[in-house]
Amino acid sequence: MADSRFALTELEDLPDDLRERISVIAQKSGFVPNIFRALGHRPAELRAFLDYHDALMERADGLSKAERELVVVATSGANHCTYCVVAHGAILRIRSRDPLLADQVAVNPWRAELDERRRAIVDLALALTRQPEKFGDADIARARAAGLTDDEIWDVGAITALFAASNRLAHLAALRPNAEFYAMGRDR
Amino acid sequence: MADSRFALTELEDLPDDLRERISVIAQKSGFVPNIFRALGHRPAELRAFLDYHDALMERADGLSKAERELVVVATSGANHCTYCVVAHGAILRIRSRDPLLADQVAVNPWRAELDERRRAIVDLALALTRQPEKFGDADIARARAAGLTDDEIWDVGAITALFAASNRLAHLAALRPNAEFYAMGRDR
Amino acid sequence: MADSRFALTELEDLPDDLRERISVIAQKSGFVPNIFRALGHRPAELRAFLDYHDALMERADGLSKAERELVVVATSGANHCTYCVVAHGAILRIRSRDPLLADQVAVNPWRAELDERRRAIVDLALALTRQPEKFGDADIARARAAGLTDDEIWDVGAITALFAASNRLAHLAALRPNAEFYAMGRDR
Amino acid sequence: MADSRFALTELEDLPDDLRERISVIAQKSGFVPNIFRALGHRPAELRAFLDYHDALMERADGLSKAERELVVVATSGANHCTYCVVAHGAILRIRSRDPLLADQVAVNPWRAELDERRRAIVDLALALTRQPEKFGDADIARARAAGLTDDEIWDVGAITALFAASNRLAHLAALRPNAEFYAMGRDR
Amino acid sequence: MADSRFALTELEDLPDDLRERISVIAQKSGFVPNIFRALGHRPAELRAFLDYHDALMERADGLSKAERELVVVATSGANHCTYCVVAHGAILRIRSRDPLLADQVAVNPWRAELDERRRAIVDLALALTRQPEKFGDADIARARAAGLTDDEIWDVGAITALFAASNRLAHLAALRPNAEFYAMGRDR
Amino acid sequence: MADSRFALTELEDLPDDLRERISVIAQKSGFVPNIFRALGHRPAELRAFLDYHDALMERADGLSKAERELVVVATSGANHCTYCVVAHGAILRIRSRDPLLADQVAVNPWRAELDERRRAIVDLALALTRQPEKFGDADIARARAAGLTDDEIWDVGAITALFAASNRLAHLAALRPNAEFYAMGRDR
User: Fold this and answer.
1) Could you tell me which residues come within 8 angstroms of residue F166 by beta carbon, excluding any fewer than 6 positions away?
2) How far away is chain B from the Cα of C17, in angstroms, using its nearest Cα?
3) pLDDT digits (tens, 9 = 90+) for B113-150
4) Which of D68, E52, E77, F79 is in the most buried spot, having the most CB atoms within 10 Å?
5) What number of C-beta contacts closer than 8 Å exist between B and C?
């Protein structure tokens, strides 16, 4: 089977700005993550996706980078998104320097053992993930009670929202994770 | 209660490029849709959101503009997103020139009476909306059997994905629809 | 497509008592609501339905008339019943003198912004609507804590029950709302 | 605990017409079924409920009486309604002359072993019971393919609708089945 | 239809140890419960199943025997397992000396009227039955608050686990309850 | 936090037969899997659990050993059981000689890319896992159509049943996977 249900675009066939941007990522990882090959046939969408991703995942204030990946893995686990769990699980292992956390959160985000702050972050993400119509003031209050600022709450919610989209794109395309992701960051 | 749980940004306080961009929309509608006021405190995110939105909703090929709004209303109805149903319901009434369609699709997207092409579009969107982990080859096959091209299938899936994000941002913020949206496009 | 999956009965073909009764409604609305045309082929059932409806919806004590319609719209929204949402949404707009409330409650009854009494009424209705087996003393206690009397609690529960039936009759028949309902009561 | 969360009305305190009507039932059963004691504080509602019940359950055409009770037990089992399962389970045992059928249908209506006609009746009822928004042409088509007439389909749907109401009234009141019902009709 | 979808093994065809063991049960009941005939084609599995069953259901410490059957009936009711509800419903009626309890718990385990200790036992079982991924410290804390010891909590959890298996074996085989079970223990 | 919510039993404190039996496993793995430490306080239950496990997982006929682990990982993934996914994921990687399969099946058992036989095995397991009351003849027929024998169908069903129990024991105890399991079998 193929890496996507739709046409794949290789690095060299991308518009210049995207080729350069993805090249930087590819050099760091040692390979081109399949999500970029799968979105490449729609350059304008890929560009906006990358911009949105960077605005949220590379942001200096608010959540730490490991916490941002924690949100991604929790929401992707709850959405059973293989690509996002495997790829961002690898990043979470690296950013948290914890080789076990990603699998624990991906398999059972609702009850993974986490300290209070991380638990509050994951609970907030989960409250928006599967039944967003039930999200309410009580969820916000619980997050605040655990010490999250409104800026951090927005981060959690907005990352959850972006990966609600991302998970669905991966399901749409039956996107396969690159084999390299599975074992990354597993050594202590 | 306020129009959002988070800080609102008025038109005049946005960065120049966003102010100009939203102004065009505001002039057409006669008011500033609340979504822009609610996202304005994060200009980079708002810019990426607008780019993604325009790449999908203003695209020349593939689905018609009414069909794109149909996807939005169906997925937002299934996600019980008041802002998106009310705002995009108005746009759907205008673009489809049908004052009844939006309410029918928003209240019961699964069984609204639609012609075969529209039914296939809505069914595809719904298959990705609430249980994306069950999305599979059978959903793609049904869409193709109804005559949708792969380009159109991507359109439906990608719009569904973008509004999975959008619905969750609206739930996060408890975003209120502008009162003007409710009655727009209701005359035959 | 037809207004119902089953035979429709026009006003002039109803038994005398029903014809007179429906005529009064038709004169007020300016048209014969389709529910009566759809139930007319079973006069004994229509008669009992009307009696039950009037016993609950025209009752002098307990909930106000707007509150009774609020229960109907909330439960019908949760049951995705297009006929009941559109028809009773119109009545709720008129009785509450609020052109926005019905859409807000129908799209997301769980989190629509409501004052405490209305929120308690809607929560009680929702507790019986989709998973009635979980309805329990805690639901009753919450309603009482919000100031509802036992007589009002019965009103909410019994109206929810009647529209559990009504929603299912509409789904059974694929009953179409009369076009007139959609725009009624939308002016402030 | 009491037989209902709300006031109970004894036979002698009912309006004349209701007292006579319930007396006939009580004489046949040997006791006053608790549903009548629980609804008696609202005579107009009880009267309409009885009329609706008799219009559907005593109807000469269409489904047999055992089949009507089969619909009641299936839908009440799916709704986990103790009163309706126990009381109508007894009636189904008697009317079907089968001491085992009611428990089988109540515990697992989806997969109880039934002949084709009964299976079609129960499947139709279940399609309307828990997710009525998904009820559609395919459900009607399956019922017709099993030989049900449109008149019988209406019977199944309308009985399911009435007991959607009845189940919720019983859950509202935490209505207890009379002890006599449990063992009735258990001898072959 | 047959008593199982798979081969049945009669008492005389079982290995000696199993034949003797089942004979004791058969003599007490007056018949061979169908579960043993259905599992007999896999003697090693039947032996382990019986050992596990006896270790939990015949244990001297912890829960009373009636309480153990209460767990079985509650979890089997929530899993809609006809064989387990009918067979263990009979045993619960006998062990609790209450002819009504089993039907009440089987039809609606969530809201059956129970004293505080029994309610805590059933709630704990239910928390593990349908969504075990949500089982957490709060469930344990509620059980302890109702006075259950850790030894009793393990009993409830382990019996729930064993019957999660048992219910699925019965569903796998479409196992029919012996007709004798239905009426056992119904006299006061 | 601890490896279990309940008392842990170390190897040297187990009864002789269990100590010897677990020692063999511990020598092969290089550590004592936590499940044995967590069940050790109830030797009779642990003994029966091991017997049941061995009868199903070490069986010579029917499914291959890799296929048996596939069933375990699929059902444990659907039940979000961290211990079982991590521990049996490791075994599946080893037995299937495929370092990627386990994560793919655990994250999304419903849509993991599998050949026809494996897909049929997983689909059968899933049909019994979360809504066993809907398991029926159609599931059996689909398994047969993919070439599974009745003996293999029983294997799949019985393993699914055993791990329905096992998953719930792990959730009951909040059982932590040994750290060693996470990285086992990840090299090609």
Assistant:
1) E161, F35, F49, F76, F81, F84
2) 33
3) 999 999 999 999 999 999 999 999 999 999 999 999 99
4) E77
5) 61
